[in-house]
Amino acid sequence: MIVLGIETSCDETAAAVVTDAREIRADVVLSQLDDHTPYGGVVPEIAARAHLEHLDGLIRRAMAEAGVGFGDLDAIAATGGPGLIGGVIVGVMTAKAIAAARGLPFIAVNHLEGHALTARLTNDVAFPYLLLLASGGHCQLLVVEGVGRYRRLGTTIDDAVGEAFDKTAKLLGLGYPGGPLVEQAAARATNPGRFALPRPLVGRPGCDFSFSGLKTAVRRHVEELGAPLSDADRDDLAAAFQSTVAEVMADRCARAIARFKADHPQGGALVVAGGVAANKTLRARLQILADREGLPFVAPPLRLCTDNAAMIAWAGIERFRLGESDPLTFAPRPRWPLDPTAAPVIGRAGVGSGVKA
Amino acid sequence: MKILGLDTATSGCSAALWDDDTRDDGVPGGRVIVQRSAPMARGQAEVLAPMAQAVLAEAGVAFAALDRIAVTVGPGAFTGLRIALAAARGFALAHDTPVVGVTSFEAIAHGLPEAERAGRAVLVAVDSRRAEPFLQLFAPDLTPIGDPAMLEPTAIAAWLDGLWPSGPLLVAGDGAGLLRAPLDRRADLTFANGDGIPDAAVVARLGATRPVGGPVDPFYLRPPDVSLPKAKA
């Protein structure tokens, strides 16, 4: 089975060709980073324009790299949401048109499910497993019981973790995007233990996250130190922020593991996904936790943690193998929670329920 | 030559199959085989692909048998115009079919009944969902006059006087209503009947006359609404 995947939900335009033998035949991603950097964040209309401009060329490239024609495909999968709707529509319409013209099934993939199932593409992880989904728009702990079957154990009650990285980077004058820039600054820190930051919700019951207080604490330190920050101050603060995030995540994951083990005594893996899963300090911290808990730890390669189309093609394969596809009347969904039974949390509308910041 | 026309650029959604019979000596000809349309300001992403499928199914023509795809490139609603453009590019990818673009202005102007135009120049106004409509003027033979524009209502009369100082004028398009007040002093002014929405059948017919091969890009006419963050003092 060969599936073309399309991803256009945020600021990466991507196309990939993947087989049900877990083989990525082609995986092309065009980052729009340079288009958005001057604005300090993703501008939806600029993103949508760029998706339209580049998508058909990227699909051509992916098909050529994979060495397949449209006649060789078994289905077309595209991100159907959640995300920036203007971009999602571009990917969905392109996919629907190819599907209609070639008489192929169309599969609208939940972008979050793409992240959630990546570990099955890369590591053939069996259900059930515990998933930490950490990205610019999300921070959730989910039990992945099967394709389309997700149980949310916890989510952020304010900022997504990637959002916290972006805001911290801005406060520290590091620029955008925050994730890699904070990580690089932290790696340069000469006294990473110099600042103690609060660890929101650590030790509290439940598996929810909170990051807005942490960001505020960083701001307070920046104000106390006075502008301009020295390189050493900036790097030490970045290190304090990053290690605190890792500690918070590990604490919340430890609680989720306890619940997961109680419900699924036969075990399963701890899996991370999403752009923030590319952070090496976080990965190392979670590896230690998983070792302690006796769980395998699975972190997909960095390139498959950030947004890509291989994960969309793969999620399409997973659904298609179960006989699922979508009609061409599918309506792109700006919001699309993985666990529709989980109550929306307090805080900014959309966070945790599926809208990217 | 079989051409599939698509439009979602303004407040409608339409698909049509045009069979072009333009002769080698340039005399135009052809007919609409099947056309479908629905008025809608939103939701074209749900309707367009099945609509195009239904048009071809009813005509008994396969996507692979299409000679061309013609699409409205704008201006209009940003998200809307991308819906048909993305679909056109997808159809084109699937069977290596050429795509040609037609502006909303051209589609609307050429969609007016000849009797209604009757020797008048045509001013097309497309609703930009702002106070300033998107505008283009055409001579009575539908040759464009001047460049497309997006103008404050108060600036429209002077702009028009510069391009077409006098003579009978027909105003068309879904933004025509916005011109009633600014042009109330203009003599010999008529507002067109009809919904002022591009029609995919007209888009397909015009598409037959366009050269193929060039890129078919969206025509936004207005940059994204975004400003650079203020530099810190």
Automatic annotation (TrEMBL), chain A:
Its main location: cytoplasm. SUPFAM superfamilies: Actin-like ATPase domain. Binds 1 Fe(2+) ion per subunit. Coiled coil: none annotated. Its EC number is 2.3.1.234. The keyword Glycoprotein does not apply. It is found in: Cytoplasm. GO terms for molecular function: iron ion binding; tRNA N(6)-L-threonylcarbamoyladenine synthase activity. Its cofactor is Fe(2+). Pfam families: TsaD. Residues 23-314 form the Gcp-like domain. Keywords: Acyltransferase, Cytoplasm, Iron, Metal-binding, Transferase, tRNA processing. It comes from the Bacteria. NCBIfam families: gcp_kae1 (TIGR00329), T6A_TsaD_YgjD (TIGR03723). Required for the formation of a threonylcarbamoyl group on adenosine at position 37 (t(6)A37) in tRNAs that read codons beginning with adenine. Is involved in the transfer of the threonylcarbamoyl moiety of threonylcarbamoyl-AMP (TC-AMP) to the N6 group of A37, together with TsaE and TsaB. TsaD likely plays a direct catalytic role in this reaction. This is tRNA N6-adenosine threonylcarbamoyltransferase.
UniProtKB/TrEMBL annotation, chain B:
It comes from Azospirillum cavernae. PANTHER family: TRNA N6-ADENOSINE THREONYLCARBAMOYLTRANSFERASE, TRNA THREONYLCARBAMOYLADENOSINE BIOSYNTHESIS PROTEIN TSAB. GO terms for biological process: tRNA threonylcarbamoyladenosine modification. The keyword Iron applies. The lineage of its organism: Bacteria, Pseudomonadati, Pseudomonadota, Alphaproteobacteria, Rhodospirillales. It catalyses: L-threonylcarbamoyladenylate + adenosine(37) in tRNA = N(6)-L-threonylcarbamoyladenosine(37) in tRNA + AMP + H(+). Its EC number is 2.3.1.234. Keywords: Acyltransferase, Iron, Metal-binding, Transferase, tRNA processing. The keyword Metal-binding applies. It is an enzyme of class 2 (transferase). InterPro entries: ATPase_NBD (IPR043129), Gcp-like_dom (IPR000905), KAE1/TsaD (IPR017861), T6A_TsaB (IPR022496). One of its GO terms (molecular function) is metal ion binding. Pfam families: TsaD. It comes from the Bacteria. This is N(6)-L-threonylcarbamoyladenine synthase. Residues 41-132 form the Gcp-like domain. GO terms for cellular component: cytosol.
